[in-house]
Fold this sequence. Notes:
Its main location: membrane. The protein is mainly alpha-helical.
Amino acid sequence: MAARLWVAYPARTYPRTRTERLVVPAVAFVVVVLAWYALSRVLPPLLLPSPFDVAVRVVRQASSGLAWQYLWPTLGPAVLGVLLAIVAALSLGLASSHSRVLAAVFEPFVALSQTVPLVALAPLLVLWLGYGAVPIAVLCAIVAFFPMVTTTIIGFRRLDMRALEAGMLDGAGPWQRLWHIELPMAAPSILAGMRAGAALAMTGAVVGEFVMGGRGLGTLLTLSRQASDTTGMFTVIFWISAASMVLYMLFAVLEQAASNRLQGETQ
Length: 267
């Protein structure tokens, strides 16, 4: 058991067995729900609703179609923002990791971009792009961009120079080395940033709806807050978290596949 809690090789800590993948998370989830239920019995419903009341509301919204009516207007800009962030992060990360001059120019501005609060950027995006899904998608891209570009640069800078030198000795050109050596070796790091950025994109979409307006989960959260409907607010948070986890797990699967390939593993 101790060997499972702490291993000497961090690359081997991906959950492998059925117990690690399913049973352990399920037990942790049950413990959290029971603790939540115990607290809800002590605190008034206005502060903390019961998890069972939230579950009933989730099922009701899913069966009536209300959840999907509000989910898609938020998920669409979030996914578009993730795609925009991926293109920008790969382009900028590739350029910065292969040019000292470009790295010196771009990296300070990348760090500076994260010091501006989202609520301050949103009105500017409305001024420049108007209302609708496009400015919200751009806001999502800004949120997702930083972890993506950071891990992309790290992934390329930590490549095994021996593999690159072997490729050069074999006569591989710059594009061949990039496609066949650099990208496969840097893929786990790149996808780790995409995984984090994709989860953050839903936050950007909700914040965008708060400031720019919309018809998605941010609007539903505002309506629940105005009605002092704490159960409704928890239900909206559930839908936001569920959508974020779907995006997160998609890139987590791709990251694990890239890591397994890099380590010569098939499972």
